[in-house]
């Protein structure tokens, strides 16, 4: 049972990270790279093991209880095109809500701190002969968290995740070719922290 819970948390982490990174992407190359990540975010089965995922290419079938078979994302959060959300409306809504909350926290983190941390991370990744980007990412996040971001009144788990995803987005908007590996490193880093 713990393995199923771990798989569910891992999948939710991936979907939340994807939703966070996808929102408001202006850079054309970055947008292409983020859309290419769609395959990573496509699960094979519902995290609750209740059945198959809904095919977003369909218009949605009307079920016998009168509900559409596709989840409808909340209006106030930009929907993600072509992402297969879990068939469970509550899970899909929760994933988008968490991503939205993380974006709000990211907006509160001082721009100067994020800009410097983004430059540091990009420089370290660019000059790193190895591909241990998870270590580079976690070191930079931990450095910024020790320095303080001025959001002590918020749950620190969420601040850490928002900062991590903000750094990933900042680096990848400047160097979109890093997205796939840095996305993977970020999901590995925040997965043990997250408790969706």
Helix content: 55-70%
Q: Would you tell me the overall average pLDDT?
A: 76
CATH fold topology: Apoptosis Regulator Bcl-x
Broad shape: globular
Beta-strand fraction estimate: under 5%
Overall number of structural domains: 1
End-to-end C-alpha gap:
17 Å
By CATH, the architecture is named Orthogonal Bundle
Order of helices and strands: HHHHHHHH
Assign the CATH class: Mainly Alpha
Q: Specify the number of helices.
A: 8
The major β-sheet equals: none
Count of beta strands: 0
Name the structural class: mainly alpha
Q: Rg, please?
A: 17 Å
pLDDT < 50 stretches: 44-82
Organism: Cynoglossus semilaevis
Protein name: BH3-interacting domain death agonist
Keywords: Apoptosis, Cytoplasm, Membrane, Mitochondrion, Mitochondrion outer membrane
Pfam families: BID (PF06393)
